[in-house]
Amino acid sequence: MYFLNPLKNLKNLSIQWMMYKINSAYKTIGEVVKILNIYSKVKSPISAHTLRYWEKEFKQLRPKNLNSKRRYYSEKDVEILKKIVFLLKDKGMTIAGARKILNENKIIKLDELSDDFIRKANFKNKITKISSIIKTLKD
Fold this sequence. Notes:
Multidrug-efflux Transporter Regulator, Chain: A, Domain 2, three-stranded antiparallel beta sheet, 2 domains, mainly alpha
């Protein structure tokens, strides 16, 4: 059945190639800002000058400077920026704390970070409940 319509198959392959090319192409600072603002759960938008500041603060972030010093971000840079946004904006960490996490050589996945954060929050809530029960029993 796959070979019955070669033109349709060719069209599907060309669409897949275009999507791959779009996802793997370098992005300008404006495109990255749009991506991060869609991605971020925080209401305050991220601006281009914030990204330029983060380039100075995080050594992992190195966009290519081409054609009259325009910045072009690779997919790897965008993933690093997503992690930075998650750590700074969503988790409320300081730049030093986010830098420390990103400097560790282990692979960090956003799901793991949020799961770890949830586990710690649940643990803290359980301890608070237990201490309030103990306090009630003492009274």
